[in-house]
Amino acid sequence: MGEKLAPIATKIVYEDDYVRVWNQIVPVGGTIEKHEHTYDYFLVNLTGTGPIHLS
Fold first, then answer.
1. Rounded to an integer, what distance in angstroms lies between the CA atom of residue 16 and that of residue 37?
2. Domain boundaries, the chain
3. Is the pLDDT of residue 20 over 80?
4. 27-51 pLDDT tens trace
5. CA–CA distance from 26 to each of 7, 18, 22, 31, 44 (Å)?
6. Which of 5, 20, 23, 50 has the fewest C-beta atoms lying within 10 Å of its C-beta?
7. Rounded CA gap, 37 and 19, in Å?
8. Of 27, 14, 43, 16, nearest to 35 (Cα)?
9. Four-CA torsion 16, 19, 20, 26, nearest 10 degrees
10. How many Cβ atoms are within 10 Å of 50's Cβ, its own excluded?
11. Contact indicator for 25, 33 with CB cutoff of 8 Å
12. pTM
C-alpha cells in the first residue's frame, strides 16, 4: 500500500470544465502536509486581512 497523503487544500471555491479553484489557509508558521498534484496547477499566495473580493 502507498503512503497516505493529505488533502490538496481546504475547500473548493469554484469549479468548471477547465479549472478548479481551492482555498487553502495556512497560519503563520504553519506547514502544509505532503500531498500530490495529479494535474497541472498554478499557485497564488495572498497575505493580509480579509475579506478579499475578486471579480
1. 18
2. 1-45
3. yes
4. 788 887 787 777 788 888 777 777 7
5. 13, 26, 13, 7, 13
6. 50
7. 14
8. 43
9. -150
10. 6
11. no
12. 0.54
Question: Would you state the cell numbers that stand for residue 45, as one nine-digit string?
Answer: 499566495
Distance separating alpha carbons of residues 15 and 13, to the nearest angstrom: 7
One-letter amino acid of 10: T
Rounded Cα distance between 47 and 3, Å, is 31
Cα angle value 49/9/22 (rounded, 5°): 70
Average pLDDT over residues 6-25: 81
| Nearest to 8, CA basis, from 29, 26, 27, 34 | 34
Over the stretch 2-15, which tens digit does the pLDDT of each residue have?
Answer: 677 666 677 888 89
> Among 24, 13, 3, 7, which Cα is nearest to 53's?
13
Residue type at 26? Answer: V
